[in-house]
Sequence to fold (929 residues):
Amino acid sequence: MYSPPHAGDSDSEGSLLSGVSDSPPRGGSPPTPPPPKHRPSPKHTATAKPKPKPKPKAKPKPVASACAAAAPPPPLPSAALSDPHGLASRIAAAPALVATTSTVSSSSFRRLVQSRNPSFDPVAAFSASAPAPTPAPTATPTEIPTAAAAQCPAPDAPPRARPKRVHPNSVSEAPSAAAEVEQPKRPRGSGEGNFVRLNINGYGRKRTFRNTQARRPTKYRSWRRRRAGGVKAQGCGDEEGDFVAEALMEREKKGAVGDVGVLKAVEAAREDPSEQNLESLLSLAYGYDSFRQGQLEAIQKVVAGESTMLVLPTGVGKSLCYQIPAMILSGLTLVVSPLLSLMVDQLRKLPAFLPGGLLASSQTSDEFHETLQRLRAGDIKVLFVSPERFLNEEFLLIFKDALPISLVAIDEAHCISEWSHNFRPSYLRLRASLLRRKLNVQCILATTATATTQTLEEIMHALEIPSDNLIKTSQIRDNLQLSISTSDNRLKDFMLLLKSSPFVDMRSIIVYCKFQGETDYVSKYLCDNNISAKSYHSGLPMKNRSRVQELFCSNKIRVAVATVAFGMGLDKSDVEGVIHYSLPESLEEYVQETGRAGRDGRLSHCHLLLDSTTFYKIRSLSHSDGVDEYAISKFLYQVFSCDNPMGSICSLVKELTSRKFDIKEEVLLTILTQLEIGGQQYLRLLPQFSVTCTLYFHKTSPQLLADKDVLVRSVLNKSETKDGNFVFEVTKIANDLNITVNDVIDHLQQLKFSGEISCELKDPAYCYVILKKPDDLNTLSATITKWLSEVERSKIMKLDAMFALANFAVKGCQRTDGCSGSQHTQCIQKKITEYFSKNEATSDNDYHAQPHKSSPFLQADIKVFLQSNSFAKFTPRAVARIMHGISSPGFPSATWSKNHFWGRYVEVDFLVVMEAAKAELVKLVGKGE
Ligand SMILES: Nc1ncnc2c1ncn2[C@@H]1O[C@H](COP(=O)(O)OP(=O)(O)OP(=O)(O)O)[C@@H](O)[C@H]1O
Fold:
């Protein structure tokens, strides 16, 4: 049990300050005196309210063009730097592949269909009384209104008249074409990532292409307006758009500080990447005196074109290892990052003379094309993309021949490995073979702060990085003082901890909790106790999250109470303490999160509150991804069903499929990705789309329009009528006309812009094309099940290893090597190093928490449960999940948490509960119930 030190005890055994490391203490005077920083006492900051920002003066600035709007301001004295080998001119000369891809005009659509369906007669289909196309205005493009935009208009928007209610299929009440004409938008939803369950990409959003009477301000326009007139946009609409726009504005503010000295240093390093030349570049470009451990070696290898694996602790400077090569190498540097917020942050931090850009699915068509234009003009040297982009053939085509890529940097590379703590299916696609084939990339830099030997081996194998090119330093910084204590009453102990030294004097603390509700509860408790705090988790709107981050970074709040969603990409150097209110799920997570403290190199403190109840809860949750062979087999039958012929576009509605097979959406995607890139390629995944479309006709009658428009004809043939409207699957139309889903959506948009139709898209789905049907589905199901259960087992072992380490620290530590009281820096560091150098996550069995292997009432309770819920169809896993209180798509907590047995057996081994459930279900089947 943790007994917090009393104020007067600060040097006693219980003190968290004893046994400090070599790094300079924050409070005292550090040996190498840093510029004296004023650190206001937390007591002041606790009550200090953030001053309202002065309103920027509205200074109207003409916007020359959309392209100029986002590019760093010319003239760039570093032109040679951004285009040292005439990259820009080569790109400009290349065919404008992408500029036209998202906009399929009637004629291009006609050509497209004809090219794929030679029997199609375009004259007959298009020439009849088609309305004359109205030129689309280009100056102020509008956006497909989002629900949010519809609800909260910008303050400067004129009051909108309530639109007249029109029957969806009304032909007479057609809106005037002039009022309706809009710029076509590139459809969103190419499956951008959703790391740590941040819903930053608007998955599940219902897309509405309704014609609007009033034009609504988009984020993009409001950003442009702000750029032009300094108007502070207020908030609604696309939150991510805001994020990206702000990053670009910030970069713009920095300006392209072309420096002849830097240019010369780049030239010198290009000719001879010696230590001296690179150091001189480092000093001129960044103002740093020397490289940190591992940096120079990594940069030299990358500049020499050698693929490299770099493992450095958090906050040491991995970004520098792709930024400096990006200056030196002639082509583009592509940086793959798992999170939009991380990309935005990295973009923001690029040095001013290293022009950067970002391609995210959340961007509007204008933003997307603007970035492409800048790319083609050679105005971008570093491009941030998410791994999901590699699904998109259109994206890959951008680089074909026209845009040479010198380097692909894969950030958080551990996501490639299913044995890592943060495996992400879309990272599986990042194989050296694909990068070489599709992008002609020879050099890859993979970076991570946390990877076990097994994970590293897998990453290096996938990216074909030679074993000699592994650069690895210790994964934990030695300026962190690590302490752990057990707690039976976490809230009470946490408050005591915060009120004792050293935490009581800290101005900036992150508290990590496992559950979202916990963060809200703890932060409210802190506020009630006059400690300024805010919660941060992925359930909060993006806007609120960035506000919390902003307040925390500017020290306007003292404590950020957050889930794992907080911190990635957070480069706040003066976080003085990290408290784990809940046990992290793995040592990797522990290292990442403690690594948020002390990035300024000063002594910082990290404390973990260990309680076994939370451990059991998290251990239960580790089973939430598990799948039975039976469910996988049924799922595979659906994937390869007879209705899905080879070569045609197939789709699986995510939510529906997930519920039907009781498999989480992320796991479905993992299986599909495995079918694509496993030993045998059975299918090709396409970007995710919403596939169910409801069409409303406004001007011409459906039949008349079908006579002139081949796509409408196909829709009428393939749709069902519901309430007088036409409902169809977009993939069916694409297959019928032998075009892509994107083409269908683009054409629908064209029709919408001409005022003919409006449509609603719903049901986000995984889309794929079958390339080969498996010979033996049962064997394939067994193989996939085995692989997934190993992943599940690995997750549990990681948690057990974390618990065992914490338990060892509080119970087994021999108080050697400077450990004392709850302070265990030395032994934790030693155990962490051991863990990362082992081939598999094994834990110290003596300090393992063994879940109970039996319980006297388990069997009887399961029997009662099954009898009282005989209306539902259970599998042993479903029963075990309910007994463990784990929500699943088929048995969601919203319904089942009200059940008497929900979570009752959380401390009994999951597999034991499953076995008991299986036995009871077999008995029921035997009785024919
Ligand atoms: N050689 C150096 N000397 C001094 N400061 C440096 C050096 N290299 C990098 N830094 C600084 O270290 C900080 C952290 O860098 P960066 O964000 O690249 O770390 P990181 O290793 O990517 O961290 P994380 O894993 O948390 O993303 C930045 O402020 C950066 O400017």
